[in-house]
User: Which sequence fits this backbone?
């Protein structure tokens, strides 16, 4: 019951934040030079006043700013995210078209990074000071310091072009008309490179974080108690240290799970992954306001959702927690 | 030729829509040129060829154009195509939606369909380039039965384009690909040969190159990879390139030079700019040789180019002398690059270096398409990169950039420089209305000489966009618009 | 202070980082002397591999510009972007965090909601939008990076202030009748400074990465030579001329690495318990 | 003998304060015996215990000696044997009950884990055993405790859980490293009794480490006195405490504050400087997930008067509201109700600007000598900044600071140094000097000596007495230690759950406590039973 109330409270708060975000973004985006009509005119290779006026009228851009804002918001309140005139489709459809791809990519990257990161971090912490620790720490540092797009370029060069192991772009073999299991296998094959490159950076973060947290927890009193009980080191590491050390990692993961939705722009660009990061970037360049706002709204909502989920997970893992509403 | 097979082509950027009657930007034409058709096609010398019209006649006074249409043509939804569709498209639909086509319509008195397979265009006055206006991008024929009486821009059918072309729209997975399939009921037996075309969206130029290399892509239409990549890709086994298929467009690059204010308003200063630029270097290095130096507002690849036009060769000393003469005081000149990819950025940098070298201070103003458009439309620039199509005739593709009646804020496609010369205005006006090619040449030669003398704009290069494709793709580029309608004839030798 | 230096210098990684960073800083400072010409000047034939020509140890790029000159001048830009945007982020985040942490209550509520709000918007996307609005220019990029990177500062500072505020010496200062400003700046801030320094060193690193990512997307300032620009410009020819992209990539890698190593070193030397709060 | 330690030396890592933690110590513990190790901080008590457990932190290595138990040398065991030995033959409990249990595991699992680690019993049996253990250590509602997480238990309960875990496999030796230091007197008394009882019942040997002579007197059969890693004295408790052989031991014993208050002073003539009436403070914690919104009534209708030159002791166990009272009077915290007057002035109603101007009248000395001085400021700054803020001239303030430093027993040259260059006792003196710099009328000392070693504690207490006389201060002395209160306070206020349960002159309260709670507090003070050797020694000495 209390959980439910808590969740409802959080959702209400999230709605307020989202509302503020919508307004801010609306103002920001409209502050950018040019408008969608101008972009379309710019791309068309020919245009005149009439052409622009028709477009602006059609897009509703001829109306005063506050009316546009009001229309957008009242649309949202009716769960209507507006229409992309450029792409001639409802924003909701466009986003839903692309969202699964992004979720798949970031989800895979997320799972990969957290699993790999935690394992590497624990391995380093357990062997602190030994060569394995040094190797993991150095590797994590290097990954952390390398530009993501750079890794992506190198990965394509090596694994697609030189070795031919993985496709270099896209989410599926276009036109192969695979179905069922074979289809998913194909998608998985395409997923390897982008998910890995996107995940590696976060792997580095989790590894470093886990290592630090693990070492810190290992110095706590209850670990000494566990030793005094005669437990084996492996069991102490697993049941006592790791479980406590993982908590800050969970927090970070929650924060980042939301952020990588927006952060996938680079990966989606390099790998031509048809996700919403790319949709956002294109929409920005095309001043496709509604789409851009929609993507922002959705990804902010994701962030809030993931934060909530993290807090709920925290609740499961840590009995001490007192959630403040 | 063999039938069958599937082909993968890059489309870049992802088009905003495929309804060619509404949108005529590059990628839309690439894809939709195979869905929609017009009355004619043009061979590489810009001679008209049959398309929806199987034959046509022009009256001697140059005022009456009569087209006989193919019979048995069906729209992709199974409805019959008829001359009414043509009249509707030209007279109603495109009049409302197509800015460039409207220019031609000004010379048209009436468009009629005496019978279901005949269309007659009656002109008010002779209009030299009129026969060049029946290309799919200029005058796409749209289905009357779907659009008549509706709001064209909001018609839901825009999402599933219906044409008469050799390929039908099948699926568009946004951000990923557009799938076209063979039109089984195409009115020419045996055509097309291909079963399907996948137009793939790959946002990153390097990724496009890799996709071609790894065999996932068969055709890279012109401009889809950076020029630096072309020689490498062209050098691969079983890869062919061609610079053909751009004759109709003859892309012509130049910088708008703000003729209104600042130093660029001084003709001598503009001449100095011309002498300062090493356009051979730009051609060889930035365009990898896939270009020619542009000496005139008219492309050397189209009709009416004057080979004797005065040429500004690379001559920094002369540039400096001219700058001294006008007393240039070091006020920075703003360069607005074209936000179309790395090549264009490098180009702006090269221009900047050339100008810096003769002592002209410069500053590159980076923007995206929207910003570029806005700055040009608002005349907020000193030098602004652009490239324009010639559309086969100076009356269609050149005059618009230099005549004073075309000076208006709000569009980057009119006389953005703000060049005003009554004599030039008159020359263009006269030339358009002449039917005889010789008379027209004379007028255009005069116009070119004057515009070049005044440096109304800073011409850079006549661009070629090599199409890169696997050699087993045959007959890909057969017309003056290349892949835009190229898959009608293409076949796979596999 | 001495103990701090000793601690810091005992850390091999930190020393390596310091040396690396010093090299970068020195190169940035003396860039105009080793490469007096503008890095944009086309000085040689394009696409010359490293060492192929005398004096062009890093080769030339697509327009025949000296990559060495680009690296040296780019070091200035990258460092400036990193430092200035971190500074600006600190200027935003520090007061917000300090006020929230010190005064608590309603202030804390308002300021932290504000911070959360900025943390909710995906930061990279926000940076892109801001640059697009301001149109790519160095100041726009710096501002965008600052705007997306201040929230962690605010949170960290708030946390520190929250815990330091109840320290007994702060209570004693209140009892001494010192003004809130005095307490914030003289009593609390100096004690919160080590984690802030550590965070700042890491922020410089991420700002450099962020700038390069923006450049990669074509949102860099075209008038200044930065490493991100060089990679962005060179990636299309990565296959023909690896050196155009690889050297600036390595430069970023090493600089960011150095900053991270220093950050970790500072972390260990200044405050061994910071690791989890830092991010 | 359950265990015998012979000639044990443990080396410290390079850079430590001395080369060895202990050198050549020898002792043994017999079954059914409680052996106390006592000594000042850093004397090597914990290292000794950890060596026996084979739980030395990295860097510390036994360099000589043997620890014999059941015919084996514990130092020579393999890793597996060591693990086997821990928990089953030797068990250990630690000082900090708050952190010694895994916060994420239920009590049940933590106890059962001991069996599991040693492969004892089936799953069901383990649960049953755990239940029995929890009952045996006297925890209320055992099934509920088993299901609880550590954070849901009080400190004393957690320490009982620790003991239950230690007893699980009936070890022959129980090592307790200051298990009661962090607890209230009453809880401490219960735990000591529990240890004693259990030992009687199970007949095991107990090695009990403490720095509190009172605890030694209460529980030990035999005592070892350690200093600087060496044993300076050992023997039966009655002998060592009753008739200490070495100066060191004697000093330790004498430093223990006596529970016997000195003769009362006559203060009837003095003016009232502070008068508090009906003070209330309620904390509202925002509701949490498991805990609904909660109100804590930290203090409830507290009233008292304080005269010029008088010392008022506020005593009570943890959480009784002592600090809250002090902080409200210092106006570091706003009470919900009640009046505080300084003489005629309505102190509690001063607005913040006026308050800041008069802050100097009430000053505090804090508990933690490490946290109460700004580590980034020089002593000079720490001492003078308040005075300067009040408008005093910088040079004058410095001169006064020098004077005060000498008054509190520090060299004037200390001004140029930083806090970390001083010992805990010295820092506390600086803290006192800082308070005096403001020329206060009222000094509130919140647990001002609790963190100090007994010997240092005695000196600081003396200093307080001296200063009170010199400056004619009114002092509110907050402490949980009745012995300390007995030493310095003229009057005592006993607090319990936010309310004042008893107030009166120290002598009266100690001699004839009127409230049950006061009585239980007094009874819980270790080592002062009528027949205690400590009482004897202190009475004579
Ligand atoms: N991990 C360690 N590293 C270095 N020195 C240590 C370590 N643990 C203890 N020491 C040193 O060993 C000596 C004995 O310490 P120990 O902890 O046994 O003292 P103690 O008597 O238990 O003191 P306390 O009453 O403060 O707990 C001290 O000088 C201490 O500084
Ligand atoms: N800032 C606060 N917020 C909420 N509750 C508080 C706060 N400070 C104190 N309390 C609660 O008020 C009660 C009294 O606390 P106080 O610190 O006055 O006790 P104390 O007698 O000084 O105890 P100790 O001996 O442990 O210092 C306790 O229950 C405590 O939990
Ligand atoms: Mg100890
Ligand atoms: Mg207290």
Assistant:
């Amino acid at each position: 019951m209390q959980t439910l109330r808590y969740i409802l409270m959080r959702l209400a708060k999230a709605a307020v934040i989202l509302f503020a975000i919508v307004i801010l973004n609306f103002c920001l985006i409209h502050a950018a030079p040019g408008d969608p009509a101008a972009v379309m005119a710019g791309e068309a290779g020919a245009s005149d006043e009439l052409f622009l006026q028709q477009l602006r009228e059609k897009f509703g851009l001829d109306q005063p700013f506050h009316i546009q804002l009001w229309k957008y918001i009242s649309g949202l309140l009716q769960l209507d995210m507006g229409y992309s005139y450029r792409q001639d489709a409802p924003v909701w459809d466009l986003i839903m078209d692309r969202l699964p791809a992004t979720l798949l990519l970031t989800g895979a990257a997320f799972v990969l990074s957290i699993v790999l990161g935690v394992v590497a971090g624990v391995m380093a912490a357990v062997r602190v000071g030994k060569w394995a620790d040094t190797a993991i720490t150095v590797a994590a540092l290097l990954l952390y310091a390398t530009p993501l797009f750079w890794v992506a370029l190198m990965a394509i060069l090596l694994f697609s072009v030189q070795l031919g192991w993985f496709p270099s772009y896209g989410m599926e073999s276009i036109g192969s008309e695979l179905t069922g299991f074979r289809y998913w296998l194909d998608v998985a094959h395409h997923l390897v490179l982008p998910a890995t490159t996107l995940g590696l950076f976060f792997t580095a973060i989790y590894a470093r974080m886990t290592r630090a947290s693990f070492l810190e927890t290992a110095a706590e009193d209850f670990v000494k108690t566990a030793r005094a009980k005669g437990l084996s080191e492996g069991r102490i590491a697993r049941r006592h240290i790791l479980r406590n050390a993982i908590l800050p990692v969970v927090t970070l993961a929650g924060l980042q799970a939301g952020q990588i939705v927006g952060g996938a722009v680079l990966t989606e660009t390099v790998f031509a992954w048809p996700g919403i990061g790319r949709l956002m970037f294109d929409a920005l360049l095309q001043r496709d306001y509604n789409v851009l706002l929609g993507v922002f709204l959705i990804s902010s909502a994701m962030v809030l959702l993931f934060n909530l989920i993290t807090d709920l997970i925290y609740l499961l893992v840590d009995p001490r927690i007192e959630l403040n509403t | 030729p063999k039938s069958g097979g599937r082909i993968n082509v890059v489309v870049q950027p992802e088009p905003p829509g495929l309804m060619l009657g509404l949108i005529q930007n590059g990628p839309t034409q690439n894809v939709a040129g195979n869905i929609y058709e017009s009355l004619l096609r043009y061979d590489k010398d810009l001679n008209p060829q049959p398309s929806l019209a199987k034959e046509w006649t022009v009256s001697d006074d140059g005022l009456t154009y009569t087209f006989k249409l193919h019979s048995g043509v069906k729209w992709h939804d199974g409805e019959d195509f008829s001359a009414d569709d043509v009249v509707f498209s030209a007279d109603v639909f495109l009049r409302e939606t197509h800015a460039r086509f409207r220019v031609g319509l000004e010379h048209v008195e009436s468009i009629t369909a005496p019978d279901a397979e005949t269309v007659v265009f009656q002109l008010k006055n002779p209009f030299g380039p009129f026969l060049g206006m029946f290309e799919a991008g200029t005058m796409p024929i749209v289905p009357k039965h779907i659009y008549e009486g509706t709001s064209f821009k909001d018609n839901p059918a825009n999402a599933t384009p219906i044409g008469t072309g050799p390929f039908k729209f099948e699926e568009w997975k946004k951000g990923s690909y557009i799938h076209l399939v063979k039109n089984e009921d195409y009115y020419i037996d045996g055509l097309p040969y291909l079963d399907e075309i996948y137009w793939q969206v790959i946002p990153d130029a390097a990724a496009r190159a890799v996709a071609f290399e790894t065999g996932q892509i068969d055709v890279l239409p012109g401009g889809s990879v950076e020029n630096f990549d072309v020689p490498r890709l062209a050098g691969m086994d079983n890869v062919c390139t061609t610079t053909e298929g751009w004759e109709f467009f003859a892309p012509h690059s130049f910088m708008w030079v703000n003729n209104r204010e600042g130093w660029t308003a001084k003709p001598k200063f503009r001449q100095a700019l011309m002498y300062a630029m090493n356009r051979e270097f730009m051609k060889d290095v930035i365009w990898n040789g896939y270009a020619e130096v542009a000496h005139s507002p008219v492309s050397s690849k189209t009709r009416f180019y004057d080979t004797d036009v005065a040429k500004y060769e690379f001559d920094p000393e002369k540039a400096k002398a001219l700058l001294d003469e006008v007393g240039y005081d070091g006020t920075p000149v703003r360069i607005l690059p074209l936000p179309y990819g790395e090549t264009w950025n490098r180009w702006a940098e090269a221009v900047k270096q050339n100008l810096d070298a003769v002592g002209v201070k410069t500053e590159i103003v980076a923007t995206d398409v929207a910003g570029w458009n806005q700055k040009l439309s608002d005349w907020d620039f000193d030098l602004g990169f652009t490239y324009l199509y010639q559309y086969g005739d100076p009356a269609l593709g050149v005059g618009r950039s230099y005549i004073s009646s075309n000076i208006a804020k709000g569009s980057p496609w009119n006389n953005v420089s703000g060049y005003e010369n009554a004599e030039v205005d008159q020359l263009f006006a006269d030339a358009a209305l002449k039917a005889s090619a010789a008379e027209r040449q004379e007028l255009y030669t005069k116009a070119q000489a004057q515009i070049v003398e005044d440096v109304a704009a800073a011409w850079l290069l006549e661009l070629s966009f090599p199409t890169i494709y696997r050699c087993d793709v045959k007959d890909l580029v057969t017309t003056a618009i290349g892949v835009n309608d190229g898959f009608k004839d293409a076949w796979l030798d596999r | 202070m001495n103990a701090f230096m000793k601690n810091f210098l005992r850390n091999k990684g930190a020393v390596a980082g310091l040396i690396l960073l010093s090299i970068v800083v020195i190169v940035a400072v003396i860039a105009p002397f080793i490469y007096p010409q503008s890095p944009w000047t086309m000085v040689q034939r394009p696409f010359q591999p490293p060492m192929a020509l005398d004096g062009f140890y890093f080769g030339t790029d697509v327009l025949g510009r000296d990559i060495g000159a680009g690296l040296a001048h780019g070091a200035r830009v990258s460092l400036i972007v990193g430092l200035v945007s971190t500074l600006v982020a600190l200027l935003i985040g520090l007061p917000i965090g300090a006020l929230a942490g010190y005064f608590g209550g309603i202030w804390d509520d308002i300021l932290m909601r504000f911070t959360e709000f900025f943390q909710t918007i995906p930061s990279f996307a926000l940076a892109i939008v801001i640059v697009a609005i301001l149109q790519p220019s160095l100041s726009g990029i710096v501002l965008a990076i600052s705007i997306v990177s201040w929230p962690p500062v605010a949170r960290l500072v708030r946390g520190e202030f929250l815990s330091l505020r109840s320290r007994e010496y702060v209570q004693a200062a209140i009892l001494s009748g010192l003004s809130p400003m005095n307490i914030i700046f003289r009593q609390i801030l100096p004690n919160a400074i080590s984690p802030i320094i550590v965070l700042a060193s890491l922020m410089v690193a991420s700002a450099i990465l962020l700038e390069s990512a923006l450049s990669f997307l074509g949102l860099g300032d075209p008038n200044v030579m930065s490493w991100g620009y060089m990679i962005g410009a060179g990636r299309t020819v990565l296959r023909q001329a690896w050196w155009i992209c690889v050297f600036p990539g390595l430069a970023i890698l090493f600089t960011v690495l150095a900053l991270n190593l220093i950050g970790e070193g500072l972390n260990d030397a200044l405050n061994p318990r910071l690791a989890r709060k830092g991010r | 003998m359950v265990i015998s330690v012979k000639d044990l030396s443990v080396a410290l890592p390079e850079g430590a304060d001395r080369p060895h933690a202990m050198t050549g110590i020898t002792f043994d513990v017999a079954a059914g015996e409680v052996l106390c190790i006592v000594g000042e901080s850093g004397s090597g008590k914990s290292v000794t215990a950890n060596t026996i457990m084979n739980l030395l932190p990295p860097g510390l290595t036994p360099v000589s000696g043997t620890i014999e138990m059941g015919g084996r040398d514990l130092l020579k065991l393999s890793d597996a044997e060591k693990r086997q030995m821990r928990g089953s033959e030797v068990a250990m409990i630690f000082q900090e009950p708050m952190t010694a249990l895994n916060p994420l595991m239920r009590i049940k699992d933590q106890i059962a884990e001991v069996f599991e680690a040693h492969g004892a019993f089936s799953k069901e049996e383990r649960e049953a055993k755990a239940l029995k253990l929890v009952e045996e250590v006297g925890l209320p509602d055992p099934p509920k405790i088993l299901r609880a997480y550590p954070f849901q238990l009080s400190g004393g309960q957690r320490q009982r859980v620790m003991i239950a875990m230690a007893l699980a496999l009936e070890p022959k030796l129980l090592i307790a490293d200051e298990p009661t230091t962090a607890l209230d007197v009453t809880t401490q008394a219960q735990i000591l009794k529990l240890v004693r009882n259990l030992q009687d019942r199970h007949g095991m040997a107990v090695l009990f480490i403490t720095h509190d002579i009172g605890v030694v007197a209460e529980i030990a059969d035999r005592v070892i006195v350690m200093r600087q890693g060496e044993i300076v004295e050992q023997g039966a408790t009655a002998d060592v405490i009753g008739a200490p052989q070495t100066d060191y031991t004697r000093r330790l014993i004498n430093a223990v504050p006596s529970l016997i208050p000195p003769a009362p002073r006559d203060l009837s003539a003095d003016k009232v400087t502070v008068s508090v009436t009906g003070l209330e403070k309620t904390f509202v914690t925002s509701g949490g997930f498991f805990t609904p919104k909660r109100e804590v009534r930290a203090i409830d209708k507290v009233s008292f008067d304080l005269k010029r030159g008088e010392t008022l002791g506020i005593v009570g166990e943890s959480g009784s509201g002592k600090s809250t009272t002090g902080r409200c009077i210092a106006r570091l915290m706003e009470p919900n109700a009640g009046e505080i007057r300084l003489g005629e002035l309505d102190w509690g109603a001063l607005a913040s600007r006026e308050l800041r101007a008069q802050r100097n009248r009430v000053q505090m000395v804090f508990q933690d000598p490490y946290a109460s001085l700004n580590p980034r400021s020089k002593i000079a700054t720490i001492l003078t900044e308040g005075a300067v803020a009040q408008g005093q001239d910088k040079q004058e303030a410095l001169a006064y600071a020098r004077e005060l430093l000498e008054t509190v027993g520090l060299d004037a040259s200390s001004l140029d140094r930083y806090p970390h260059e001083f010992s805990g006792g010295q820092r506390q003196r600086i803290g006192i000097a800082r308070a005096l710099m403001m020329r206060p009328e009222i000094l509130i000392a919140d647990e001002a000596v609790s963190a100090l070693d007994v010997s240092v504690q005695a000196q600081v207490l003396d200093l307080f007495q001296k200063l009170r006389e010199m400056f004619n201060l009114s002092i509110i002395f907050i402490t949980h230690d009745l012995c300390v209160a007995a030493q310095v306070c003229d009057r005592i206020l006993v607090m319990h759950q936010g309310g004042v349960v008893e107030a009166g002159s120290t002598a009266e309260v100690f001699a004839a406590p009127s409230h049950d709670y006061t009585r239980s507090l007094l009874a819980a003070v270790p080592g002062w039973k009528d027949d205690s050797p400590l009482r004897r020694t202190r009475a004579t000495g």
About this structure: The mean pLDDT of chain B is 88.
